[in-house]
Each structure stands twice: as C-alpha cells, then as structure tokens.
Amino acid sequence: MSTQLHRHAARLSITLALAVFATASPAQSTAPQGPTVPGLSYTIRASAGPSSGSGMMGAVGVGSQNYTGRAVVAGDRGRMDITDGGVESLFTKGDYILFDTTELVIVHPATKDFVVLRHDVASQGLARLESMGLKMAVSDVKVTLDSIGAGDTVAGIPTRHYRMTTAFNLSIDAGFMQQGLGTESLTDYWVANVPGLPTNPLLRVNGISSPSAAMTGLFADLSARVDSAARRLGSAVALKTVTVSHMNRGPGTSTTTRQESDVSDIRHQDVDESLLLLPAGYKQGSLPGTDQTPMTDDGAKWRTLPRARPGR
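The structure corresponding to this sequence follows.
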C-alpha cells in the first residue's frame, strides 16, 4: 500500500472510530460550587474488542475503547467523568464529557482544551477525505429493527429486547486505487423508559443522530432509516447494548469488532449546575486526525446553561 493510501486509511480509521463512539469516574468528586437542581446519576461501562483482520481492513480498524464513567443528568444536559480507561485518540481517565440531546463535548482538564463532536461528525470526516481527492459513495443500505421480547433486568429495571441490523457498502476511489468495503452490524438493545433520564448520544437507541439533527452527506439515507426504525421505541433509552460489526472487501480481508455497554447504579440526586458548563479559559481543539484550526466557537452554548432548567 502506498504512503498516501496509508495516510488516507489512517484518517478513515479515525473517522470510523468517531462514528462508532458517537454509538458511549468518581461521582462528582468536585465540591459543589453553584446552585443544584434535581437530576439523576448512573455508571456506564463500555468496551470494544480489538479489531482483527488483514490488508487494508487491518489499517482501518476502529481504535480501542474500554472505559468506565460516572454520569449526571439534569434536564437535557449531562456530564460523564471518566474514572478508568478511555477511547484511543479521544479521551482517557481524568477527562470528562458534556452532552445534550445532539452532541458531545470532550473536555481535557490536563491541557485545558475541548473538542466538540457533533451528530454529523462522521459525515464531516468523510467530507474532509473527499476534499483530499477521495471519491466515496454509499449503496445497498439496509436497516431492520426486530422485537425479541422481554429483556434482562438492567440496573434493577425490567427491559425490552430489540435487535437492529444495519448494512451498507462503501466504495472508495483514490484515483490510483479503488476499494470496496462491505459492512454489517447487529446491535442488541435492552431498553426501558426511565423517568428523568432523557435520550442522549450515550444512551440513544439509534446511536447515529437525533430526530432534530439528522445526518447529512454520505450517511443521510442510513441515518434516516435508523431514525425511522428507532422511532418505534419512543423515549426509551438503551441501558445495555451489544454490537457485532463485520467489515470486508472480499475473501481473507475482513475485520470483526464487538462492542458492549451497560448502565448501572441509577440514582436520583441533586446536580451541581456548574459541573454542566465549560470552565472559563478552556480553548477549542481540533478533532483527532485533522490539522484544521476551528473557525467557529463551537463551545459557546456550553458556557451558559439552557434557559429552562428542571426544578426552576
């Protein structure tokens, strides 16, 4: 494989890792510094088995992720502190993630900076690759959602078990070389309606976008179909997920990844509002694998609280 194609493969690997995560600590170790509002807290554990494969597929395997976090939620905004592990190139122990119904903000206290992951981060990453000369197209999109029946009890809550199958083909034309990638993912969801726990990018059943912020570009059709299927579940959140993904470009060149996440220790508690804000003086960083300096202040809304707050 040429040096240029290796570079493109590395960038595609990071784009795929961001897309997967966007499918994601001591409980408030900081002393309260501001007003509190009613909310919830929970622990989330996530892991992904190492990618296995050969050829280009080995080069574009999703980066490792294995972490534990403690999250607090008040209204539509929340925060997850990473207590152990991390996601390669994105965050590690000591970092934390702010989130609402449409995006994630990864905050790095050690370097006093942050990175915003929007709902369409995968589309943006692929658009950057296209601007570098790669031509890509998605075809043969398939999405199904099947009800399996009563599910396990997770975090003391009875659940319903669903299985979503997504599949599509991605063609890549680098001019001097063409590549076709076939993907299929089977995700088992154990879902429940939990009062006070809204859908968010960490627990959303569709895991790709939100109804108010659908993806555009290459994945627009896939996003729309997943949203349509997930709409059957209403406001339910995924308390446990298991995803097995297969990606291949032909015999002997495939990779398989298994991802799991589960929620435990859900508690009603007061949440310090100051923990749901970006600290003063933190600077916006670039997404991993890009050299672009952010042209807009994507952290502006995270420096103030939403107008309508629970308990106010």
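Residues 1-32, 54-62, 208-214 have pLDDT under 50 and may be disordered.
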